[in-house]
Amino acid sequence: MPDTIKFSPGAFSNKGNWTPEQLKLAFVYYCQTPFGKLHSKNPQIIELAKLIGRTPSALAMKLVNFASLDPSITGTGRKGLSGASTLDREIWDEFHADWERLAIECEQLRQHLLREHGLHSEAPREADDAFALDDYTGATRQALVQQRIKQNFFRRAVLASYRGRCCISGVSNTRLLVASHIVPWREDKANRLNPSNGLCLSAIHDKAFDQHLFSLTDENRIVLSDQLKASKDAFLQEVFWPLDGRPIELPERFRPDPAFTHSHRATMLGGQT
Predict the structure, then answer these.
(1) Which tens digit of pLDDT belongs to each residue from 55-80?
(2) How far apart are CA 74 and CA 182, in angstroms?
(3) More confident residue, 138 or 155
């Protein structure tokens, strides 16, 4: 993936204040890692710290600083550290304003650093990818690479937030899990990669949610559609009917945004009239 971004020579200095580039890569890691793994002994933190020019302890501390800005963390009584800087807050706000641009930018930064350190570098891919990028060239290949980066970011962020478990069934086999958009990808470009626009669902729950067979209340309780309640299908009755009114298992971070769940529920209810 070619470099298309520029950064200062001191962007990855191991001295002085953290730079925006270091913070962006740290925040991406924060998004994609379960809260319980944000510690200096984590091999991935050790690897990333070496890559960006900081110590594992400093990186772990910075990650917990980000947690102090996350309402999903502080709302449960976990305060994180209180030393979040003005720049930490700016990076947090910048991501929330433009998830797509920063996901691409950070992957370009990461790939550049891997090459600088003489490490293996390749376009990110999911284990179930059905096509090879070698089959494409030019602008088409670049578009597919960027699409893959975006999908990877969203999936990893959502699954990490929900501890790798379906928030309804508890299924934890990643091959059966989907990072499901609350407001569909095609309808809200600004929030396509926003983890608060995602639910971790099993494949069957994802399909039913996407078809508006059920939705969520403002309190994140499951509400079934009239169509599903009237179903004569024994399997659907067994799997879905007991869920009506049940709360979902809430994520550690990036709780569903009420505006997104309200939009999804309105679409479901509108289809019943």
Answers:
(1) 999 999 999 889 888 887 777 666 55
(2) 23
(3) 155
Could you give the count of Cα atoms lying within 13 Å of 7 in the half-sphere of its Cβ?
19
Distance CA 147, CA 234 (A): 39
- Beta carbons of 99 and 193 less than 8 angstroms apart: yes
Percent of residues, the chain, with pLDDT higher than 90: 64
Helices (H), the chain: 20-31, 43-52, 56-67, 71-74, 86-97, 99-116, 138-161, 203-210, 226-229, 234-240, 258-270
Domain boundaries, the chain: 20-122, 163-270
Token digits for 173? 């086999």
d(CA 200, CA 165): 7
181 DSSP β-pair partners: 198
Instruction: List, for residues 212-224, the tens digit of each pLDDT value.
Output: 999 999 999 999 9
